[in-house]
Design a protein that fits this description.
The protein is mainly α and about 40 residues long. It contains two helices and no strands. The longest helix has 12 residues.
């Protein structure tokens, strides 16, 4: 996907396959994905 992100300690980056189906290209870690999902559930 070509993103060059700087990850903080403990962040788990998404792999290319996981990123292919995302509608928001700014999500790059599992934590960000989980946080976004929780916001949509509320």
């Amino acid at each position: 996907m070509g993103l060059d992100a700087n990850y903080q300690y403990g962040q788990t980056p998404l792999d290319e396959e996981e990123m292919e189906g995302l509608l928001l290209p700014t999500i790059a870690t599992h934590g960000e994905l989980d946080e976004f999902g929780q916001q949509k559930i509320k």
